[in-house]
Amino acid sequence: MESNFVEDRLAKPALGGLSQEFLGSRWIRLALILSLVGTVSLVGCASGVSPQVQQMQLVISPSALSFGNISVGSSSTQTVTLINSGAASVTVSQARVSGTGFSNNGLTPPLTLPPGQSSTLTVRFTPQAAGRVTGSLSVVSNDPHSPTMIALNGAGDQAQLSVIPTSVSFGDVAVGTLNTQTITLINSGTANVIISRATPSGNGFSITGLTFPLTLSAGQRTSFNVAFAPTSAGSVTGSLSLVSDAPNSPSTIALSGTGVTSTFLLTASPTSLSFGNVTVGSNSAPQTVTLTNSGNSSVSISQINVSGSGFSASGLTAPLTLAAGQTASFSVVFASTTAGAAIGNVSLVSNATNSPTIALSASGVQPIPLARTLSWNPSLSAVVSYNVYRGTQSGGSYQKLNSLPAPTTTYTDNSVLAGQTYFYVVTAVDSRNVESVHSNEVSTTIPSQ
């Protein structure tokens, strides 16, 4: 074909005064070049158009990969397509990735892609630690713009289980009783944490408030109780093991406590009450008694009994239970009905080894007569009676006390009140019923009962 091409051109007449021999040698050189290169097409040589080079172009789709959040230890894959969008074949010689946790597979170089053809490879993200990671995929080829690159990004999520507190000490706990403390679990990581099991060890330790499997999302927390119920006296140690998918699993919580012999003690304060003198027909002021469970075990009070005439208690209703250290109060009142000494007590029935009894005492007294008797010197004038006046302020005003004329020089005021001060004056009345001016004023204070 090439020889025909040369012969055809040699048969043409000389151009521009050049000999046929000269032209022939020039065309022979051009034919040889075309046969060696093979990538230059002679388009319109006779009309003077220059030769053009055919271009290859490698395109990667998509132009970037985002893997989102992936749990540490897990992986995610995405597919990348290599496309030859040029007019000449592309040869891929290498595909490599950068960035911790990124890898690729599915491409065996060298790979030649004719125009319009495509091939795929896989990019994998396997985070090694929590946090954001960036990288790139670089494809090396004979594309003039090689290497062709796309951006990669992803984030490693990791669960982390935090325990508060990390150890629990129950101190002294009475044998046969129960003491509980609260433990809080927090997912302090960036991925869900799944708690699959909680196992307590040690005599008397137990847990409540957890159901398995338990999932905590990032930042979420939950609480449960650890209990210690000693069955005998003595120190006990143990632990609580929490198994989860967090990298710090299992989480271990140290437990300790001491079983002590149960004591049932109930104390009263005060242990006696004295109400002093109480006027017959009246009630004393109430007095308070405080009960304290001074043992290490719960005390049950089944009865509160009061003896002694006039004494009564209120404020507590049996049965009731006092936990160790707990207090309760009640009041006692004395209602005097007769004059004379009165004694009694408040006795408590309970499971305490020392159920207390509170002694009571009082004295009933007759009321002090509330009356004042006034006397005065007789008038020197002829008088037939007297009037008595009383006020509550010195100098009046006064109110007349006697409804009938008082023929004598004495008068008893039976309407006074305890603790009150009174002011008195007297007038004289003659036979014509003419009343004199007020006498001088006298005062008196009625004592309190």
Can you tell me about this structure?
The strands form 8 sheets. The protein has a 5-stranded mixed β-sheet, with no helix packed on it. Strands 11-18-17-13-15 form a 5-stranded mixed β-sheet, with no helix packed on it. The N and C termini lie far apart (151 Å). It has helices at residues 2-10, 20-37; strands spanning 58-61, 64-71, 76-84, 90-98, 102-105, 111-113, 118-125, 131-141, 148-157, 161-164, 167-174, 179-187, 193-201, 205-208, 214-216, 221-228, 234-244, 251-260, 266-269, 272-279, 287-293, 299-307, 311-314, 320-322, 327-334, 340-350, 357-365, 372-375, 385-391, 399-400, 410-413, 421-429, 442-445. Helix 1 packs antiparallel against helix 2. It folds into 5 domains: 2-47, no CATH class; 58-157, Immunoglobulins (Immunoglobulin-like, Sandwich); 161-260, Immunoglobulin-like, CATH 2.60.40; 266-365, Immunoglobulin-like, CATH 2.60.40.10; 372-445, Immunoglobulin-like (Sandwich). Helices cover 6% and strands 50% of the residues. It has 2 helices and 33 strands. With 449 residues, it is mostly beta strands.
The CATH C-level name of the largest domain is Mainly Beta
- Kindly, what is the distance between the CA atoms of the first and last residues, rounded to a whole number of angstroms? 151 Å
Shape: elongated
Quick one: how many beta strands? 33
Q: How much is the average pLDDT?
A: 86
Largest sheet, spatial ordering of strands: 2-9-8-4-6
Whole-number total of structural domains: 5
CATH topology of the largest domain: Immunoglobulin-like
- The number of distinct helices, counting runs of at least 4 residues, comes to 2
Q: Determine the CATH superfamily of the largest domain.
A: Immunoglobulins
Q: What does the main sheet amount to?
A: 5 strands, mixed
Radius of gyration: 58 Å
Stretches with pLDDT under 50, minimum 5 residues: 1-52
**CATH architecture group name of the largest domain:** Sandwich
Structural class: mainly beta
Strand content: over 45%
Name the helicity range. Answer: under 10%
